[in-house]
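Q: Could you predict the 3D structure of parp?
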Amino acid sequence: MDYLRTEFQANLDSEQEERSTISESGSSNSYDQQQRPSFADEHGLMELLEGDRAYDLIYRNCKSALGDQCELLSILRNGFATVGSRAKLKSFQIFQEAVEMKHGGGEEGGKARVKYGWCAVEKTELKSVLEYGFSQPRNDGSYGRGLYLSPDNALLECLKDSAAESEDGMRFLLLSRVILGKSEIVTRGSTQSCPSSPEFDSGVDDLASPSKYIVWSTHMNTHVLPEFLVCIKAPFNFNRSPKRLRSPWMAFPVLIKALSKLLPPSQILIIQKHYKDQQDRRISRSELIQRVRNITGDKLLVHIIKAFGHKAQH
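A: Sure. Here are the predicted C-alpha cells for parp:
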C-alpha cells in the first residue's frame, strides 16, 4: 500500500527542484557567509529567513502541528559544505537510484518512496551527525534496532519523544529525506535490526497511517539525508501526556457544529481541514484532538462537551 503524499511533502519537493540549493558543491551564491550566525557557521548550516519558500513551508507545518505550545527559534538548511557531508549527499543519491532500480524504476523517486521525516538530536551530537552520520539512535528500541523518524505530518510525536536539551527547553529537530522503498510492518517489541527479506527496505508501525518510519541500523547512514534543522523551545511538561477530558463522548461533526456557533468561520475551516486529514488518515486521532485543543482551548471544549452531556441526559 502506498503512502499518502502530504501537501507539505509536495510543496517542499517542488521548492527543492526550483531552487536546487542542495548541490554537490554545497554552495549557495545568494547567501552572504559574513552574515552567518556562529552556530550555523560551526555546523555548516545556512539560516533561512521569513519569505524563503522552504522557511515558510516548514514554519506553517510546525505551527499547524504545535500551535502556540512551542516557540520556533530558527530554521536552518544543510549547506553540505564539507567533504564528508557532500559524500553523504552523493551516497544518498546513489542508494536512491539503487532502490528505484530494485523495485522496477519510476519517475521522481516514486519506487524509492523518498519521504520527509523528523527526528530529534542533541546539540552535542549535531555536528557529528551532519558530518559523519548517525552512530547511536536515541530511542527505547521498542521497534527494533534502528533510527525512528516521524512523518512530516507527525511532528508532535517526534517532539514528545525528544528530551529537553537544556534548562531553557531547547530542542533540535532534523527534517530529513528518507528512502523508504518497500516497507514492512514492524510490531512493538521487535528485535529486528535489518529487513526481514531482500524484498523490504524499511519498516513502519502502520502501513495505512504510519507514525514511525523505522530505518534499520544497517541503512540509517545511507537512506537518511538531513536537510533542515529546526530549533524549538518547548515547555518542561511538554513530553507528558495531556490530561484527558473526563466528559461524555461526542462525535466530531457534532462538536464542529457546536463550535461553529462560538468561533469565527476561519477557525472552523481549519478544524474541518484537520478533521478531513484525520478521516483521510493523514494524521492520527490523537493529533487531531491536540490540534483542536490548540485552537479552542480546553476551557471552551470542556464547556461544550459538558453541556452536550447534560443535554443528552434529559
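Q: Anything worth pointing out?
A: The chain has two domains: 7-237, 242-312.
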